[in-house]
Amino acid sequence: MGQLxxxxxxxxxxxxxxxxxxxxxxxxxxxxxxxxPQEKNLQEAIKLRWEALGYNKPMIVQFGIYLKNIFxxxxxxxxxxxxxxxxxxxxxxxxxLPTVLVNLxxxxxxxxxxxxxxxxxxxxxxxxxDHVISTGVMLFVSIPSYVYAFIVQYLLFFKLGWFDSPTVLxxxxxxxxxxxxxxxxxxxxxxxxxxxxxxxxxxRFTRAxxxxxxxxxxxxxxxxxxxxxxxxxxxxxxxxxxxxxLPMIISSFIGxxxxxxxxxxxxxxxxxxxxxxxxxxxxxxxxxxxxxxxxTFVSLLAGIVVDISYGFIxxxxxxxxx
Length: 322
Fold this sequence. Notes:
By secondary structure, this protein is an all-alpha fold. Helix content is 74%, strand content 1%. The chain has a two-stranded antiparallel sheet. Helix 12 packs antiparallel against helix 13.
């Protein structure tokens, strides 16, 4: 019962936070000037749409109309500049697959490498292996992902010539599918660029948790019972160290929906992140708002899932209980 109350409380807090962020984004984007397109037919359509949304009314009335359209009609607005006369949410859903694929491939590459490196660093604590891995982690964590993107492009495309293009292929050039060998090959560079930070984060977290677990009292008891260091590590230490690590991985899987705006822009990935930048640049109000709602909801949901997952992974943890 206590855990159910905790979940309901977190959900209410999530929706309240989402409401506040959406309200701030709505006001800020409306304060920016927007130019009319050249086409007269499109101008008339936009004027009719703006009149229906109450753009000539106070800001709070406009926001009320916007929320009413979302809850009653599931209408998040229309794109007039990114893709003319296209529903904003349909546009986001259409851009979701490439974003998910690139980030999913990156995560699947990062998890085994990051955890394995973290385990090695913890087992070899204060030895040269630990020093090398820890130095690499500090380096990789400190450098932004877009720097890796330029380094990967320079080395793999310009210097080594392993790829035909520094960016991801368009859907037409890849045969109309995101799963062709040519498309998968073109995604290797952004996947590598995204993986450095994730590998470093997982490695650092795994090393810290496993190092603490290896020095606990029950590990000494396991060794006195006759278990070797390797047996005690795999049967007890690693299992307990995974309790805080698994929620982090779950959060990462949810976070792949958000994508990476900068990486998508550098590698010309037609995903949600690139759409967000276009909407800001072109002042496409409805697309910007729909994208902001999408990003905020994914981020808040990931936090809730992480907290709840602790209770399922370790039965000793009960959220909301005293």
